[in-house]
Design goal:
about 100 residues; alpha+beta; 3-stranded antiparallel β-sheet; 6 strands; about 25% helix
């Protein structure tokens, strides 16, 4: 058990040092990378961000625009706090959303 915990600790420290898990915001959109998944969402696909409450905790939801080939639920969870306060991350996401009109592809 000690070896497993030590290995998990070393992996977590490595993640902190090389910033494997991160949220990158640039001109192309939002690139969210965690240990197991990677989500890329272009600015033109996002309508807005909303705060929702799930199990008495705040959760950031991304509201996607409806376009060609999209159907169903246009709200998806956007888990990107990485230990930071949700309100702070939410503010950063909304402030950096590029609302320049572009066609959906």
């Amino acid at each position: 058990m000690t070896i497993i915990m030590l290995l998990a600790g070393v992996l977590n420290l490595g993640d902190q040092l090389i910033t494997w898990s991160r949220l990158k915001i640039d001109q192309d959109g939002y690139d969210l990378r965690t240990w197991w998944t990677r989500k890329k969402i272009p600015h033109q696909a996002i309508r807005d961000f909303e705060l929702d409450e799930y199990m008495s905790r705040k959760l950031i939801m991304v509201c996607l625009r409806s376009g060609k080939g999209t159907s169903g639920n246009s709200r998806r969870p956007f888990p990107c706090a990485f230990g930071r306060p949700v309100d702070e991350v939410f503010s950063i996401l909304r402030d950096n959303l590029d609302k320049t009109p572009r066609p959906l592809t």
